[in-house]
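Listing S7. Sequence submitted for prediction.
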Amino acid sequence: LGHHFLTMQLEQPLRAVAHASDSRSDGRERARVIVLASRSHRFSPPIPSTFAELPTPQMLEPAPSVFPILRDILLYAFSKLCNVLFAQELQRRWGDDIIA
């Protein structure tokens, strides 16, 4: 959630940079938000419909101590899925004003 909060706080400064560079003739891009993800998002648990349904380590606990690392892998995959969804939502909300 910290990445989301920081990005939202930077929206106005990014827009200011984007608008200030509209007059640039050198073809360089204006402003950019980079969100890192990986192919691991494909192994994520299903997307919950409410915030209360977000996966927790306890929810993803495998059967009695069988492959305890599985829980961590699933949580990592879910965090990467959240990054992908966040980048898509930034593009939808900010469009071409700020390149996301």
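Caption to Listing S7: primary sequence and predicted structure tokens for the chain studied. DSSP finds three helices and no strands in the chain. The longest helix spans residues 69-94.
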